[in-house]
Amino acid sequence: MSRSMRKALIDRDHRQLSLVRQCSLLNVSRASVYYRPVPTGAEDLKLMVPMDRQYLKTPCYGSRKMKARLLQPGYLVSRKRVRRLLRLMSLEAVYRCPNTSKPAPGHRIYPYLLKGVEVNRVDQVWAADITYIPMAQGFLYLVAIMDWHSRRVLAWKLSNTMETDFCVAALEEALSKGRPEIFNTDQGAQFTSEAFTQMLQEQGIQVSMDGKGRYLDNIFLERLWRSIKYEEVYLKAYQTVAEARSGINAYLEFYNRQRPHQALGYRTPAEVYENGQEEKKVAAPEAGLLSGSVKPSVGTENSLNLALRLS
After folding, report:
1. SS3 211
2. Residue 158, class by beta-carbon neighbours within 10 Å (0-12 exposed, 13-18 middle, 19+ buried)?
3. Third-level CATH fold of 125-264
4. CA separation for the pair 176, 171 (Å, rounded)
5. Where are the alpha helices (DSSP H) in the chain?
6. pLDDT tens, 209-218?
7. Where are the domains of the chain?
8. Which residues have CB under 8 Å from 72's CB, separation 6+?
9. ∠ CA 232-234-235 to the nearest 5 degrees?
């Protein structure tokens, strides 16, 4: 059971077990139970929007360059503050580095399985990622699961925290529509958690993870984030969570069913995905016939044996 799931079992009003005893039994840190997040200030929220825009343009910028870029339009900000806000938005500079990622204690890191792989059919590879969504007051996190071949967004969820639960909920929804051969993510704690990876393994799906700082390993979702932010999020400045959920839902319906993609021959992701699934259904019985479900006639067997002897 994941830490977030164990933490959810704690009952602050339990009459027989104290919080200390519950934390001990569930192996949960008391500090995480007592902690109450400090609301993000208005000045921080004001800085986070241009930082997010700049990150989309230059994901290689670390805290030093990000600070220098913010100083140009007149934002008075220290490097320490920039670094803190980048962590809050779950943004990290993209660069090659020798150290492996440490997503969370005890979480297994899986190898990257897509190097040199040609993705040429639907449900061959799915991918998931999380991004920061700014609002007029506050911010949210958005997780999306995409089919690589068709670019179709199969499921998405919003959350105001970075807990694992909303990622697992998105995975459950996506798996109700199909099943990939390989599922690729970054090394974030949400995706390396037992709750997430176990669900994939139970379905017989291979788990693949990007190298640290390798945002190009998941480039299609990075492109989706850029599209959704510039074509929807930055134009709306959502006031409430309900407004954000409604706006993102409308955009992703448009993205899936109306927005043509040049790489797809100007077809929509939904069109390519649904056609691909139909082709799989037609190909399945034919594959069974070719694999030997119907035995060849005696004449055919004799011809094959003769051909083998002559060769």
Report:
1. coil
2. middle
3. Nucleotidyltransferase; domain 5 (3.30.420)
4. 9
5. 3-8, 19-26, 30-34, 42-57, 63-71, 79-88, 165-175, 189-192, 194-202, 219-228, 234-236, 241-257, 269-288, 298-310
6. 986 545 566 7
7. 3-34, 42-88, 125-264
8. none
9. 65
Determine if the pTM surpasses 0.85: no
| Stated length of the chain | 311
- Cβ–Cβ under 8 Å, residues 170 and 143: yes
Other C-beta atoms lying within 10 Å of the C-beta of residue 212: 19
CB 183 within 8 A of CB 205: yes
H or E segment and range at residue 114: none
Buried b (16+ CB within 10 A) or exposed e, 61-73: bebeebbebbeee
| Per-residue model confidence as pLDDT tens digits over 259-308 | 999 999 999 999 999 999 988 888 766 655 555 543 434 343 444 343 33
What are the two backbone dihedrals, phi and then psi, of residue 130, each rounded to the nearest 5 degrees? -125, 140
pLDDT, tens digit, for every residue of 88-110?
Answer: 888 887 765 443 344 555 578 89
